[in-house]
Amino acid sequence: MFDHLLIHNRVERWLVGAADLVLSAGTLIARRSTVTSDQPVRILVLRLERIGDLLMTLPALAKLRAELPDATIDLVVGSWNTSLAELLTVVDHVEAVDAPWLARGDTETGYLELTRRASQWRTGRYDLAINFEGDIRSNALMALCGAPRRIGFAIKGGGAFLTERSTYNRRAHVATNALRLVDTVLQHPAANASADARSPFAIPEAVRTRVRDVLERIGRPAIGIHASGGRAIKQWDPARFAEVGIQLARSQGATLVLTGSAGDRAAVDRVKAELPEDLPVVDLSGTLDLPCLAVVLEHLSLFITGDTGPMHLAAVMGTPIVAIFGPSDPINYGPWMSRNRVVRVDIWCSPCNQVRRPPSRCIGHVPDCLVGVEVDQVVTAANALLG
After folding, report:
1. Bridge partners of 322?
2. Which phi and psi (to 5°) does residue 300 adopt?
């Protein structure tokens, strides 16, 4: 029962499904049809999740702006995405809200404060609200804005909070589903609407100036290595990242550029411990904000990473990518509209897409779907892109 919900945990799926039944049967939420021939003038967009989720939504935001050039589009993101969102040319205003079910560390907004913030959206007098997440909690949050049209997915519940639902294709890319959601908004989308993920960023010259010395130190060719998987279940062995780097640096005469946040220090240090002293290496981990990282990624000849937010940022910047995938499905989450090679192995349980709540058999160790990815496979994929 409730198999239509994209929730892997059975208990959670039943709870959300039961809540949906109650909400759908009740009369607390008016779901009257409000579709008109009038184009929306003020639009509220929610994309509350991680870096990669925002970046995979950029083609849809670009299409929305291309088709509604005179509309005001306000974007709500997690605080971790604010610096990137503020570079977008396709939105007019950015607001940061850290949902408790998504926040990490000290950035969490409590539920009462979250409700208060969302209720204030009513002052924006939005005639359309769009939620790209498809979660019962974020759909409920969006409903507080008071927009007469509320469009989104119901794959994780909350369809009763929407006035229009878009179909979610589980076998399609997140970006494709986001574009389909915008088509629902537009009703009659133009055939030539933009779906280019690289167009919405405008990086200020001040940001480029901040990393100019770093780029001169890196030189070319330069190969980036992002060793952290972000989550333990997506972590390929850092020693293997190091071996890939050694082989490519030797054969290409390239500088290795190590990236990562301050929290990725352990993975980066494990890579550095395996690298010979005579190899040219620039360690940028913990030193770059996301806009500066975008400029560095744009400079690289190749970027080697797991399924991470920086992988999607590299795709937006047009950098060739070798992406190492394990439990997550590249059909859904692979690099979008970029030169890339995805490296993975086929085993009976992969891809399971159970990243947030891994199966018990994969907790406490590297999952078999990543153990099976060999150094030679990654090197071969890299050489194919480097020519």
Report:
1. 304, 341
2. -70, 150
Q: What are phi and psi of 13, to 5 degrees?
A: -60, -40
Banded model confidence at residue 14, pLDDT cuts 50, 70, 90: very low
Q: What are the strands, taking DSSP E only, across the chain?
A: 42-47, 72-77, 93-96, 128-131, 149-152, 164-165, 222-226, 255-259, 281-283, 302-306, 321-324, 340-343
CA atoms within 13 A on the CB side of 16: 25
Q: What pLDDT is stored for residue 206 in this prediction?
A: 94
- Helices 136-143, 111-119: crossing angle, 10 deg rounding: 40
Residue 151's DSSP bridge partners are: 130, 164
C-beta separation of 180 from 166 below 8 A: yes
Can you spell out the DSSP letters for 317-373? TT--EEEE-SSS-HHHHSPPSS-EEEE----TT------SS--GGGTTS--HHHHT-
Would you state the structure tokens that stand for residue 258, as one six-digit string? 């190590």
CB 75 within 8 A of CB 43: no
Say how far apart CA 124 and CA 126 lie, in whole Å.
5
Listed in sequence order, the residues at least 6 apart from 277 whose beta carbon sits closer than 8 Å to its beta carbon are none
- What pLDDT does 101 receive? 77
Confidence check: pLDDT of 139 > 70: yes
Is the dihedral angle over the CA atoms 103, 104, 107, 109 positive or is it negative?
Answer: positive
For the entire predicted model, the pTM comes to 0.90
pLDDT at 189 over 80: no
Rounding to the nearest 10 degrees, give the CA dihedral for residues 132, 134, 139, 142: 0
Q: Pick from 219, 218, 236, 220: which is nearest to 228 by CA? A: 236
Domains of the chain: 10-186 (3.40.50.2000), 205-386 (3.40.50.2000)
Give percent of the chain above pLDDT 70: 86
Tokens of 305: 């990473």
